[in-house]
Design goal:
Helix content of chain A: 25-40%
Number of strands of chain B: 20
Mean pLDDT of chain B: 93
Low-confidence stretches of chain A: none
Helix content of chain B: 25-40%
Order of helices and strands of chain A: HEEHEHEEEEE
Shape of chain B: globular
Low-confidence stretches of chain B: none
Radius of gyration of chain B: 21 Å
Largest interface: A-B, 31 and 47 residues
Distance between the termini of chain A: 27 Å
Strand order of the largest sheet of chain B: 1-2-3-4-5-6-14-13
Shape of chain A: globular
Largest sheet of chain B: 8 strands, mixed
Distance between the termini of chain B: 47 Å
Radius of gyration of chain A: 14 Å
Number of strands of chain A: 8
Structural class of chain A: alpha+beta
Largest sheet of chain A: 5 strands, antiparallel
Number of helices of chain B: 16
Mean pLDDT of chain A: 91
Structural class of chain B: alpha+beta
Oligomer: heterodimer
Strand content of chain B: 25-35%
Chain lengths: 142, 489
């Protein structure tokens, strides 16, 4: 198990799915969350980094920005079927996040699909800094 | 043995109001008490999750009247519990997109046929395969109606199921057997975001993924023969249940308005224990906009289920090589279980217009209610309660007690008892096709992951859920259906 995998925990929720993510810094938090999010939708080992897309999101505080980031990834998946494998977050600053994501279009014939995510909820949603680490908790409607 | 008058679920103390009705007294910022319909056994299951805390949280919403209610299929949701009902008065009350859910107007419709299962049993594999090819399912499924323009999409959003019938999907008489005739009148598609409209363009007539399905069932048990007769039901009859909603367009609309309301709440001085309950006054511009956007998405869902039903009819005709008259495809009813509706109810002896949020709950109006279709005035509104895909589903009818105790609402399904992750773990090593075949169900599906999450072991026994509401006098069991074929995303 890699350090990145160790820093991501799936939350047991009766109806929905959730994640807790921990990272040393904000770019790491956003990138890990993005990759873990894609890992809920389909088996990440089967996704190839065939193409690269640019993704950006805006939000007034870290929580809003993190929420907007996940909503943007969900929208890219829903509108284009794009599923990421590697997220490289090159800029996180108050109000804005920018990233480049390598992945491909989901193909149900080749990829093991897990779960359709309907929304990024605010239920128990939290982004916080503690003991030198950035942490986030998010529950998805599935 | 005497029945206990109190129960403890986690740290929450409840006292018994009636045999199957429990109350959480007002405390802290709760404006009304919480009330839960449940047997002692169902209540015991709730200790494991946070759903009762969510009933209490909903009781904090401004303008809530009566009780923050939960049906016996209650389980932990986000913001509102799934199985929650909350009625708000129109002047001071709020509207909450989280109280409707991401899948706006997720609902169920029941279609009857003239066929008996024994006559088509040998053709089930072909029938299921044909339906699977005609009705797109799975994540991002699209393409049932190619080339839908944005202008046409907006017409669909205004007219709901009427649009689908006008396009040749189904029949005029279908519209008489849906809540609101298959279209809420206050829809305004101009309030939907470009992203919501884009997501809706290609998904009309698609099932989607998750717990959505098309199920072929057979009438296994009839409980009220006079009502069953009025609904043209008979033993061994083949029926079809369709469970889906407003797809990506609805999810996006919920997301868009959650953001709007989260930002606007401070302006109205609203503070809540959970941001997912984000809301604004019904009368506010944001509240009115949401209601008109929600109505558009609700209409999309009705059009979606109407197109799927029409495609299913074509599938039956093709696979069984019979005439429409021999098939007798006929819509019994279409219910919403994720919606907010403006309705009249009596509170403290006074008739009031209220905004009733039902999130994972079904309307259950009694005989004689003006909003019950003419054909069902004598028996009450049909209520459709799907179970898990391997066991059974139910048809109920609404009763007068629903108007007195639950704002005209009853349960909507089995209710999960196991997380999706846990369900997948439990499904490891199980051959899903063999397991479904063992249960007598021919299944076609897109993703093993969804099937593993939705296996029967993940759900409460729906029989106990509907029995609770039957014994509480809220809705009466009419018939039980055994699934014999299912298509899923």
């Amino acid at each position: 198990m890699t350090d990145k995998q160790k820093a991501i925990r799936e939350i047991e929720h009766t109806a929905d799915l959730g994640l807790e993510i921990e990272a040393d810094d904000l770019p790491g938090l956003f990138a890990s969350a993005g990759e873990a999010f894609y890992g809920l939708i389909a088996d990440p080992t089967e996704i190839q980094p065939k193409e690269e897309i640019s993704v950006s999101a805006t939000g007034e505080c870290w929580e809003e920005l993190f929420h907007a980031w996940l909503c943007e990834l969900l929208a890219q998946f829903n509108l284009k079927g794009f599923i990421g494998k590697q997220c490289r977050v090159h800029r996180v600053e108050p109000g804005r996040v920018e990233a480049r994501i390598k992945g491909e279009i989901l193909d149900l014939k080749r990829h093991r699909f897990y779960t359709e995510i309907k929304g990024v909820t605010y239920h128990e949603f939290k982004v916080w800094h503690e003991n030198g680490k950035w942490r986030a908790r998010v529950i998805f409607d599935v | 043995m005497s029945k206990s008058s109190e129960a403890l679920a986690g740290e929450i103390k409840l006292h018994r109001v009636e045999e199957f009705l429990w109350e959480i007294p007002r405390q802290g910022g709760m404006r009304v008490p919480g009330r839960i319909f449940a047997t002692e056994k169902l209540l015991a299951d709730l200790k494991e999750d946070n759903s009762l805390r969510q009933v209490m949280n909903v009781a904090h919403l401004p303008g809530i009247v009566g009780y923050s209610l939960a049906m016996p299929d209650i389980h932990w949701g986000y913001g509102f519990p799934i199985g929650g009902v909350a009625a708000m008065e129109l002047n001071e009350g709020v509207i909450s997109p989280g109280g409707v859910g991401y899948d706006i107007n997720c609902g169920v419709r029941l279609v009857t046929t003239h066929l008996t299962y024994s006559t088509i049993q040998q053709k089930m594999a072909r029938l299921v395969e044909t339906l699977f090819s005609l009705i797109p399912s799975g994540v991002g499924s699209e393409g049932a109606i190619p080339g839908l323009s944005k202008t046409e999409e907006k017409r669909l959003l205004r007219d709901g199921a009427r649009w689908a019938v006008a396009q040749g999907y189904g029949h005029q008489q279908d519209l008489d057997h849906m809540e609101e005739g298959g279209a809420l009148p206050n829809a305004n598609p101009e309030l939907l975001s470009d992203r919501a409209l884009a997501r809706g363009l290609k998904q009309v007539g698609t099932l989607g993924s998750g717990n959505h399905f098309l199920e072929i069932g057979r009438v296994e048990e009839i409980y009220l023969s006079d009502v069953a007769q009025a609904l043209n039901l008979f033993p061994d009859q083949v029926v079809v249940l369709i469970h889906t909603g407003s797809r990506g367009l609805g999810y996006q609309t919920c997301e868009d308005f959650l953001k709007v309301m989260n930002q606007a709440m401070a302006k109205y001085g609203i503070q809540l224990p959970d941001r997912q309950l984000a809301c604004t006054p019904i009368k506010s511009p944001e509240g009115q906009d949401y209601l008109a956007a929600m109505a558009s998405a609700a209409n999309y869902a009705w059009a979606n289920r109407q197109v799927i039903m029409s495609q299913a009819e074509k599938g039956f005709l093709k696979a069984l090589d019979i005439s429409p008259a021999e098939l007798g495809f006929s819509l019994i009813y279409d219910v919403c279980h994720n919606i907010a509706k403006i309705e009249e109810h009596v509170v403290d002896g006074q008739r009031r217009r209220l905004c009733v949020h039902r999130k994972g709950a079904t309307r259950a109006f009694p005989p004689g209610h003006p909003q019950v279709p003419k054909a069902y005035q004598g028996v009450g509104q049909p209520v459709l309660v799907p179970g898990d895909m391997g066991r059974y589903s139910y048809l109920l009818v609404g009763c007068q007690a629903a108007m007195e105790k639950s704002f005209g609402s009853t349960c909507h399904g089995a209710g999960r008892v196991m997380s999706r992750t846990q369900s997948k773990k439990e499904s490891r090593g199980i051959n899903i096709d063999q397991e479904m075949a063992r249960r007598g169900v021919v299944a076609r599906y897109q993703g093993r992951g969804t099937m593993a999450e939705e296996m029967p072991h993940a759900y409460k026994d729906v029989a106990e859920v509907v029995e609770t509401m039957d014994l509480a006098g809220i809705s009466k069991k009419v018939a039980r259906f055994r699934p014999v074929g299912v298509i899923k995303g």
